[in-house]
Amino acid sequence: MALSKIDVANMLTGTIPTSVGGTGSTAATLPASLINNTSIGNVTALPAAIATGDVLQVVSARTGTQATSSSTSYSDTGLTASITPSATSSKILVLVQQSFAKYSGDTVGNIRIYRDSTEIGGTIPARELGDTGNSNYNAIGIGFSCSILDTPSSTSSLTYKTQFNNGAGAGTCSVQYNNGNSYITLMEIAGWL
Length: 193
Description:
single chain; mainly beta; Jelly Rolls
């Protein structure tokens, strides 16, 4: 037998029929204490635990400040962001979009990524960017992208940054050439063991 509109309305408000439809139907009220999650006082269960692979937080930063180099020594690009993981089992997905240009001389550039004082990823992410073998003035803009899944095993604040050098030690290369933007995004990924 179909439920009447009154029966359905009663159910939605916590009143349920003791018999369904027809004449002579009676209703009974279900106590609010037995209805889960209708108010904060009636909540009986919390949501399921955070699942492996959930994104717990996202931090992003950008810089448009130009920095140049004619040296083989590495220096900071100015692109940096910090994140504090909520658990030691979390991993940090590091996404970098680094603006780079070789703009004078026969030179090349290299880029690497650091977590605090540790180079991550095992190798320099980019080598010999912008090599043309031409000593004339030129501006070769390169959008370098990289993603690294880091395992810091820490709940302390962590600072990620990029560094660059002039691989040839001659000519001039630049990051954020002519104030082009570079970006870094850090994502905490939960539950990895």
